[in-house]
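Journal club prep, shared notes

We agreed each person brings one worked example of a sequence with its structure written out as tokens. Mine is Putative efflux protein. I'm keeping it raw so we can talk through how to read the token line rather than staring at a rendered picture. Sequence first:
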Amino acid sequence: MILRGLKWGLLLQLAVGPVCLFIFRAASLQGFGAAFAGVIAVSLADGLYILAALRGARMLGAGRRPGGALYLIGAGTLLLFGLNMIAGMFDLSLLPSIPLSQGTGGDSLFIRAFLLTASNPLTLLFWTGVFSAKMIELRLGGGELLQFGTGCLLATVLFLTGVALLGHLAHAFVTPLAAKWLNFMTGILFLYYAFRLIVKWIVKPAEPTA
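Then the structure, token by token:
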């Protein structure tokens, strides 16, 4: 059942989102070690969400839409990170008073990656829906469902570690100018994900973007 969860989780990871881009950017600019700290942080946040979902936690009642505040928290976090990356193109920082905004060490990247993952308001809803559907479809008991969730978490670790390795391979080719453009393009993509999250709230809720 762990392998089944692993295979299914890897399929979910193919939908590249802001967290994946964040890890790749960190590896290409700071190396594998710093990026792997981010992988651990993302896995920890995902693991907490998965545990909550496995225990039947619900952020929504049946047929209700997520509260606007939840969507705005996620979109606001993406906007904050995105705008700060774009400002880096011009050697500026929009967050001079927040140490984690410009930190280059593994500790700082761990905190940023954890906050970025934990701020997505749809992650818990998504995992809850996944496990509920699989529990019915496969008629899983409590132990089997836990194994399935463990496989999904392993998929996060393996996939993002691979992304970090790819980013690390690009590390030697990233010049200071290329680093600025990487920051800029990643920031633009973060803004896209933020606006998409807002549109989802306005139109209809869907799966998480990361």
